[in-house]
Predict the structure.
Amino acid sequence: MQALYFTAHGGVEGLEFGTRPDPHPARDEVLVRLRAAALNHLDLFVLRGIPGLELALPHIGGADGAGEIVAVGEDVRVWKIGDEVVFNPGLWCGECEYCRRGDESLCVRFGLLGEHAPGTFAELVAVKAEALSRKPSHLSWEEAAAFPLTFLTAWRMLVTRARLQAGESVLVHGIGGGVALAALAIATRIGARVIVTSGDERKLERARVLGAAETIDYRAADVAREVRRLTGKRGVDVVVETAGEATWMASLKSAAKGGRIVTCGATTGPNPAEELRLVFWNQLSILGSTMGSRADWSGMVEAVERWELRPVIDSTLPLSDGRDGYARMARGEQLGKIVLKVDAS
Ligand SMILES: [Zn+2]
């Protein structure tokens, strides 16, 4: 098969497009012929090398994808050749205490497609049958490939962890990012009032069209002060954190008394300044969140279908030009998902 892969960790110049051996599905897996795949920040981290993560090289990245089943393992009963599918990019053992109680993203051996196993930047990928769902019928192949990781992440953050309710207020930092845009889509549909930030007026304008009630340009205004002003000095009920060092203090100062800050990432760095007095005096809940359980996944896919949610697509490139997609993500220029289209040869 054709694939985008790298043979050594480093920058985007190390990515190559060429032939790799076809994967073979295990007993409980299916083989998916991909129609499209999508980039995540994670793919850049994996390319650069994550301390402590030893990969078998060459490695194929990519957690997100959508396509058709072309082969099924001998134990797979529900799925058949020709089914159009999307899949949960998480990998879990199914046996540990967390998996047994249905908290798969807490699995002691938790991993991700494209990180701990060969990913979706290829014509073919092997996926566990229990990770599959039918492709939502209102989405194109590009959209179907673009929503799984970010919508799953945002769903667990808002619905499962923060228990967001209609009528509550939410602050979402950095509205160009995939998780931030998914959080905006889900939170507005739940009935929350969403305030977003960006340093790019174009992204703020787009966010208003997508349903943001208020926008803050963080280059022009102090985010926490502006949030206080927009909420009658109260602060927001929920803060969606993906950035870490650049935004953490603003998150602490923007949360209402009893507010919840839910974090799934630290794209600007993992060691922010901290202010514990704000945490205990305002009785804040700091909630961690990673990917989602099988129940989160099915709840999210059902909501995407029922509410006809769509991911925002920044650009679409052929898989053979995937290096340009990685480079665009590294420059942080994107508004939404960068999709790689896979043409079956
Ligand atoms: Zn497990």
